[in-house]
């Protein structure tokens, strides 16, 4: 159900709506869910509200479709630019995706794929998308640009969901999947089951497959190596744990999630978030906010609207059930 956000004290007249939707049943083995928001933030100077959002490492491809005069300024690795629609690949722990500034009108729908789901629908190796972003048309060509236009011309969210459903349903391939993707899907399942804490050699033994073979198939189909993917999943488990508590025993947390020691956990945390774990706890609900299926770090250069912070607050209940874990 769509949830309107409260009006902001700083930006009176603001209107915020969020949504999360399941794709058509036939798509659910490829796509985890659709999510997004519509925001109208009034009375701030300039065309952009100057925030920098750091999006956490991701273990699945996402397509972001903006509409109604919405665009984003992105920066990742050595690439930066302003885009209306874009595709982000899987990101390892060392790669920060930054969104630098929001327009007054912010309307978008996101498609979050399961690991390997994008490859299975489009026959595009996810390894080619890793650690960067592309404009929609760069990857999907003219049909991607046409999808952006159709989403932009819709009059309701229900109509947008219907259009993206139909677009992806046409991509389902009826032929038997190659064995390589089956190995990848099986390895993903094992990594998620153990929350990223199992060593890769355990997975190799379980699947009875050579290391180089699995690494090649995994990076082609799921965008990361098994080790990188395990680190992302393990780190998301740590984030979920920290979101649910106010104080943390760092040694116990490091041990519970398979880090060498407390210093290893802290270093990994700073690399992925630019925050220390202690500051993360202090900033929960302030600069650290949870928005539906992702945890974002905001670094505002002006006072953040309270309505935006309230909009992004979300429990981790769905993630504990496997939703949005990666």
Protein topology:
Layout: E1 3-5, E2 15-21, E3 31-40, E4 48-55, E5 62-66, E6 72-76, E7 79-83, E8 85-88, E9 97-103, E10 105-113, H1 117-122, E11 133-135, H2 136-152, H3 157-169, H4 179-193, H5 200-207, H6 211-222, H7 226-243, H8 250-256, H9 262-273, H10 277-283, E12 288-291, E13 294-300, H11 306-312, H12 317-320
Antiparallel strand pairs: 1-2, 2-3, 3-10, 4-9, 4-13, 5-8, 5-10, 6-7, 6-9, 8-11, 12-13
Helix pairs in contact: 2-3, 4-6, 4-7
Textual characterization of the structure:
The chain has helices at residues 117-122, 136-152, 157-169, 179-193, 200-207, 211-222, 226-243, 250-256, 262-273, 277-283, 306-312, 317-320, and strands at residues 3-5, 15-21, 31-40, 48-55, 62-66, 72-76, 79-83, 85-88, 97-103, 105-113, 133-135, 288-291, 294-300. The chain is an alpha+beta fold and 326 residues long. It has a domain at 3-175 and 286-320: Jelly Rolls (Sandwich). The protein has a seven-stranded antiparallel beta sheet with strand order 1-2-3-10-5-8-11. It has a six-stranded antiparallel beta sheet with strand order 7-6-9-4-13-12. α2 (136-152) packs across α3 and α4 (179-193) crosses α6. The longest helix has 18 residues, at 226-243. It starts with a strand and ends in a 6-residue tail after the last helix. The model is unreliable at 1-13 and 300-326 (pLDDT under 50).
């Amino acid at each position: 159900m769509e949830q309107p956000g409260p009006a902001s004290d700083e930006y009176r007249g603001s209107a915020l709506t969020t949504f999360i939707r399941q794709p058509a049943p036939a798509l659910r083995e490829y796509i985890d869910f659709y999510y997004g928001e519509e925001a109208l933030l009034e009375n701030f100077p300039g065309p952009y509200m100057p925030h920098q959002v750091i999006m956490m490492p991701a273990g699945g491809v996402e397509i972001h479709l903006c509409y109604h005069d919405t665009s984003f300024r992105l920066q990742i690795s050595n690439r930066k630019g302003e885009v209306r629609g874009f595709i982000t690949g899987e990101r390892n722990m060392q790669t920060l995706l930054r969104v630098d500034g929001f327009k007054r009108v912010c309307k978008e729908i996101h498609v979050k794929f399961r690991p390997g789901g994008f490859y299975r629908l489009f026959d595009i190796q996810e390894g080619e998308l890793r650690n960067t972003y592309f404009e929609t048309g760069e990857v999907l060509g003219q049909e991607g640009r046409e999808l952006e236009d159709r989403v932009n011309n819709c009059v309701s969210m229900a109509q947008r969901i219907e259009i993206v459903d139909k677009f992806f349903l046409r991509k389902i391939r009826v032929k038997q999947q190659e064995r390589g993707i089956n190995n990848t899907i099986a390895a993903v399942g094992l990594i998620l089951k153990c929350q990223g804490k199992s060593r890769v050699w355990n997975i190799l033994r379980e699947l009875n497959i050579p290391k180089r073979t699995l690494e090649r198939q995994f990076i082609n189909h799921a965008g990361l190596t098994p080790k990188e993917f395990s680190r992302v999943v393990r780190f998301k488990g740590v984030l979920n744990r920290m979101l649910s508590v106010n104080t943390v025993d760092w040694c116990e947390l490091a041990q519970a999630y398979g880090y060498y020691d407390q210093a290893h956990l802290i270093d990994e945390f700073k690399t992925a978030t630019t925050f220390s774990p202690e500051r993360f706890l202090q900033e929960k609900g302030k600069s650290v906010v949870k928005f539906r299926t992702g945890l974002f770090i905001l670094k505002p250069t002006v006072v953040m609207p309270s309505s935006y912070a309230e909009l992004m607050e979300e429990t981790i209940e769905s993630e504990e059930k496997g939703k949005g874990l990666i």
